[in-house]
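Anyone up for a design puzzle?
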């Protein structure tokens, strides 16, 4: 009988989804000039989607190189692992939607980010990266250099892989005007205590400051 796609072949090797993923990962590499390109590996586990996509788009465009030129495709190969463990902040899982039109009247389709993560998490990262790239003729070539996998398994074990270290997150300091307003509010709270009566009205009581 014919075996199913998830079954093993005569050599005890998986011939189903794993083989299909490997074929998709290796497809299109012949159209890329790999001479002089670096293989950068991104681990998406626990990373924020937007911050990770911005770093990937920077490497794909070659902006991390001193020889960057907007009209040339000097970006490196990007291999993204553990796409299913990407971090989503806020309420994007339920509030963010992907919409597309089939071409027929009234056929506007939409899918939430939560459903897309359960269906194919690799497309979530791919769409985030592609929407950060310039819309020009180099976009398709840069898309071919992006290889995304749901787990940490990939067919590029024979390549000179270089793990990419994410830069530390830079938290913006409070603006001077807001800092001064915060200090004034703290001093005012120390000098005056605010209490609420039964009728809901606020009464201010002066507090004696100790010397």
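Challenge accepted. My sequence:
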């Amino acid at each position: 009988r014919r075996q199913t796609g998830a079954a093993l072949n005569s050599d005890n090797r998986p011939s189903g989804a794993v083989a299909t993923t490997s074929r998709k990962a290796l497809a299109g590499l012949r159209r890329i000039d790999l001479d002089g390109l670096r293989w950068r590996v991104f681990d998406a586990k626990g990373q924020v989607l937007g911050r990770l996509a911005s770093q990937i788009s920077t490497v794909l465009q070659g902006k991390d190189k001193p020889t960057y030129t907007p009209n040339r495709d000097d970006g490196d190969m990007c291999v993204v692992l553990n796409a299913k463990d990407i971090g989503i902040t806020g309420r994007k899982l339920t509030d963010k939607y992907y919409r597309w039109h089939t071409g027929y009247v009234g056929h506007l389709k939409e899918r939430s980010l939560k459903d897309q993560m359960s269906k194919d998490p690799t497309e979530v990262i791919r769409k985030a990266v592609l929407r950060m790239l310039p819309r020009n003729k180099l976009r398709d070539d840069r898309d071919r250099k992006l290889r995304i996998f749901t787990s940490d398994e990939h067919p590029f074990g024979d390549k000179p892989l270089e793990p990419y270290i994410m830069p530390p997150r830079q938290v913006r300091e409070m603006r001077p005007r807001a800092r001064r307003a915060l200090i004034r509010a703290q001093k005012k709270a120390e000098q005056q205590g605010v209490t609420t009566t039964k009728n809901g009205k606020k009464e201010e009581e002066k507090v004696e400051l100790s010397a």
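A detail worth pointing out: The longest strand covers residues 39-43.
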